[in-house]
């Protein structure tokens, strides 16, 4: 089974972005980081994909919107993040 595609929309100096990336890093997950400050056109893409949510970070696993930092940490705490990431499967 191949590793899932993980994407995270971020901006510099965003503490929540750092926390979300730190969680993914702690799990050894490779992800594609999309900096919406460096690529402003990607912000509207993010908003469309995230169902209108405009804040960063926004995390996607295999195209499925997971949510922001708190949502990602809540999934992890509930034991539901690792299966989405293909960890322990």
Automatic annotation (TrEMBL):
<comment type="function">
    <text>Has a glutathione-disulfide oxidoreductase activity in the presence of NADPH and glutathione reductase. Reduces low molecular weight disulfides and proteins.</text>
</comment>
<keyword id="KW-0676">Redox-active center</keyword>
<keyword id="KW-1015">Disulfide bond</keyword>
<dbReference type="InterPro" id="IPR014025">
    <property type="entry name" value="Glutaredoxin_subgr"/>
</dbReference>
<keyword id="KW-0963">Cytoplasm</keyword>
<keyword id="KW-0813">Transport</keyword>
<dbReference type="InterPro" id="IPR011900">
    <property type="entry name" value="GRX_bact"/>
</dbReference>
<dbReference type="GO" id="GO:0015038">
    <property type="term" value="F:glutathione disulfide oxidoreductase activity"/>
</dbReference>
<dbReference type="GO" id="GO:0005737">
    <property type="term" value="C:cytoplasm"/>
</dbReference>
<feature type="domain" description="Glutaredoxin">
    <location>
        <begin position="6"/>
        <end position="66"/>
    </location>
</feature>
<dbReference type="GO" id="GO:0034599">
    <property type="term" value="P:cellular response to oxidative stress"/>
</dbReference>
<dbReference type="InterPro" id="IPR002109">
    <property type="entry name" value="Glutaredoxin"/>
</dbReference>
<dbReference type="GO" id="GO:0045454">
    <property type="term" value="P:cell redox homeostasis"/>
</dbReference>
<protein>
    <recommendedName>
        <fullName>Glutaredoxin</fullName>
    </recommendedName>
</protein>
<keyword id="KW-0249">Electron transport</keyword>
<dbReference type="Pfam" id="PF00462">
    <property type="entry name" value="Glutaredoxin"/>
</dbReference>
<comment type="similarity">
    <text>Belongs to the glutaredoxin family.</text>
</comment>
<dbReference type="InterPro" id="IPR036249">
    <property type="entry name" value="Thioredoxin-like_sf"/>
</dbReference>
């Amino acid at each position: 089974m191949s590793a899932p595609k993980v994407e995270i929309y971020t901006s510099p100096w965003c503490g929540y972005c750092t926390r979300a990336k730190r969680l993914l890093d702690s799990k050894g997950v490779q992800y594609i980081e999309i900096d919406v400050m460096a690529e402003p056109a990607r912000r509207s893409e993010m908003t469309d994909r995230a169902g209108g949510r405009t804040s960063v970070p926004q995390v996607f696993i295999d195209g499925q919107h997971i949510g922001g930092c708190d949502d990602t940490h809540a999934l992890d705490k509930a034991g539901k993040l690792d299966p989405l990431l293909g960890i322990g499967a």
